[in-house]
Automatic annotation (TrEMBL), chain A:
Belongs to the NqrB/RnfD family. Keywords: Cell inner membrane, Cell membrane, Flavoprotein, FMN, Ion transport, Membrane, NAD, Phosphoprotein, Sodium, Sodium transport, Translocase, Transmembrane, Transmembrane helix, Transport, Ubiquinone. Composed of six subunits; NqrA, NqrB, NqrC, NqrD, NqrE and NqrF. The modification FMN phosphoryl threonine is found at residue 228. The chain crosses the membrane at residues 60-78, 113-134, 149-173, 248-273, 280-300, 320-338, 350-368, 374-394. It is found in: Cell membrane. It comes from Maribacter arenosus. It is a multi-pass membrane protein. This is Na(+)-translocating NADH-quinone reductase subunit B.
UniProtKB/TrEMBL annotation, chain B:
Its EC number is 7.2.1.1. It is a multi-pass membrane protein. NQR complex catalyzes the reduction of ubiquinone-1 to ubiquinol by two successive reactions, coupled with the transport of Na(+) ions from the cytoplasm to the periplasm. NqrA to NqrE are probably involved in the second step, the conversion of ubisemiquinone to ubiquinol. It catalyses: a ubiquinone + n Na(+)(in) + NADH + H(+) = a ubiquinol + n Na(+)(out) + NAD(+). It is found in: Cell membrane; Endomembrane system. Keywords: Cell inner membrane, Cell membrane, Ion transport, Membrane, NAD, Sodium, Sodium transport, Translocase, Transmembrane, Transmembrane helix, Transport, Ubiquinone. InterPro entries: NqrD (IPR011292), NqrDE/RnfAE (IPR003667). HAMAP family: NqrD. This is Na(+)-translocating NADH-quinone reductase subunit D.
Amino acid sequence: MSNRRLTFKKRLHILKHHFRDKKMAPAFAAFHTFLFTPDETTHSGAHVRGADDLKRTMNMVILALVPVLLFSMFNAGYQHYAAIDVANNVSRELSLWENFLTWDNFWIGIIKVLPLVVVSYGVGLGVEFIFAIIKGHEVEEGYLVTGMLVPLIVPIDTPLWMLAISVIFGVVIGKEVFGGTGMNILNPALTIRAFLFFAYPTWMSGDKVWVYEAVERTGTADAISGETVLGALAQNNLAELNYSVSDMFFGFIPGSVGETSTFLILLGGLFLVFSKIASWRIMLSAVIGSLVMGYIFNVIVDMGIITEYSNFYGLMSFEYWQHLLVGGLAFGIVYMATDPVTGSQTNRGKWIYGFLIGFLSVMIRVFNPAYPEGVFLAILLMNVFAPTIDHYVVKSNIKKRLKRLKNATILPKDSDSKAEELKAETV
Amino acid sequence: MALLSKKDANLIIDPLADNNPITIQVLGICSALAITAELKASVVMAISVLFVLGIGNVVISLMRNIIPSKIRIIVQLIVVATLVIIVDQILKAFAYELSKTLSVFVGLIITNCIIMGRFEAFALGNGPWKSFLDGIGNSLGYGVILIIVGFFRELLGSGTLFGFPVLGNPIAKTGLYATGYENNGFMIIPPAALIVVGIIIWVQRSRNKALIEDN
C-alpha cells in the first residue's frame, strides 16, 4: 500500500503507533484524540459506551460560551467608543445595527479579546502537555473549558504576560499538583483569576482597566473612564450611573470581557441545563441565595440603619434583583459554580452549596472595601467546603435510614434469627 | 573531616536536606510564613534561632540529669525564654527598625516547635557537644528554607534584595520595569510563603523519591 492513498487520519494512526513507547507518545496521542475518535477498542468483556464522554461534555460548555465570546468582542469596541463619546460630551443612543454590531467594534474585539484567548489556550495547553509527558499519561481535555473561561473573566486591558503567568500558576498549583483533571479542589479558571487579582490588583480593579485604551489615555487630553456599575455604586456615585435595566440585562455595560450580557449567559445556562451538562439545582439555589442576601440589605436600608453617608449605602440600596444583572454574578453562577469536579455531588448538597455561593457573593460584593465584586471569592470558598457539605449530607442520610430501619417492624416468618439476618443485611 | 566524626557531621548535614525541620517535619511553619516577605528579616530570624537553639540545646543537655521529668517542659521554657529575651533586647538596641518588622515573632521563637522539639527529642538524651551540633544543624536547616523563601518573595514581590533595588525602579520605570514588568503583589502576602514552601517540598521530594511516604 503506498503512503499516498492513506488518509490524514490513517497517517496519524501510524504515526501514533510509531511513537508508542517514546517519551513524546502522550503528546501525539493527545493531538490525535483531539481530532479523531481513537482507533483502540477494549479487548475483553462487554462494554456499554455512553455518548457523553468528557470531550463531549467539554465541547457542549464551549458551545454555550461562544455567543458570550462573540458578544464580548462587539462590546469591547462599543464600550471604547461610548467612553470616548462620554469624554467629549457627545450623547449616544444605543442602536444594535448602527453602532453595536459594526466592524469597527468587532475589530477592537479581534485585536484585544482574541489575543487573550490565544495566550490562555497556548500557555495552558503547553503546561498540560509538559505534565503529560513528564508523568507519561494521556493529555486530558480538562483545559478546554478553563482556557475558554479565563479570557472571559479578566479585564480587557490585562497585559498578556500577566495572563500567561497566572495561567501557569493556576494550572500547576490549582490543578496539576492535585493530580490533574478531575482531581482539583479549586476551579482552575477562578484560581487563575484570584492569582491575577492578588498579584496585580491595579490591573484588576479601579475605573480604567475595563475599557480598551482607558489605561493608556490616563492623564492625557483624551482620557476616558471605564467605571463599572459596581464600581460606581461602591463609591456612592449614584448620579453617574446612567445605564438602564435593559442595558444591564443585555450587557451593554463595561466589565470583565465576557461577564456583561446576562441575557446570553441565561441562554447558555438554559442550554447547559437542557443538555443535562450543568446542575439546575446549583444555578437555581445560587440565584435564590443572592436574592435573599440582596433583599436583606435592601430591608436594612429601608429601616434607616444605613444612611446615605455610609460607605455601603450605594451597594446596599441597589435593588436586590439587579445584583444578578451586573458584575460577574450571573456568569459565575452559570459557568463556574456548576463545575462538576469542584462542586457538591449530592442533590441536597447542591442546594446548600449553590445557596451559599449566591448569598456570600452579594455579601462580599457589598462589604469588600477594595473591590466591589465577590463572586469568584465566594465560589472558591465554597469549592473548599463542597466535600464537607457532601460528607454531612451523606451522613445525615445514613442516620435517617438507620432510624427508619429501627422503627420498621420486621415480621418474623420462619424464626427470629431470620429477622436478625435481614436486619444485618440492610444495614 | 578531621574536626568532626562522620556521625557528628551527619547531625549537621541531615537537617539541611533529608530531615529538614520545615520541609520534612513541617515544624516552625508559622514564622516561616510570617516574616519571609523580606530577605533581611529572614536572615535575622535564622540567626536568632541559631543562637537560641545552639545555646539552649547545650544548656538543656548539661542539665538533663538533674531536671525532674515532671517539670521538664517548664524548665525548657525558662531556658528558651531567657535566651529569646537576650536576642530581643540585642535587636532592640542595635537594629530597632528590624525588630519592629519582626515584631512579635522574635518573642514567639519561644513557641517555635523546632526548639521545643529538639530539646525534647535530642538534648534530653545526648551530651552537650552532640546537642550543640544538632542545634546548629536544625537551625541551619530552618534558616536555609527561610532564606530561600525570603529570596523569592522579596525578589518577585518587591523587586529588591536586602532592600536594594535589583530589578530597577518601579516608579521611574527603569531596568526591567521599562519593559512593562510589575511587582507581584501576591508574593508579599503570607499565603504566598505557603505556596513557595510547598514548591520547595515538591522539588525536594521529586529529587529524592525515598522521602515520599507511601499511603
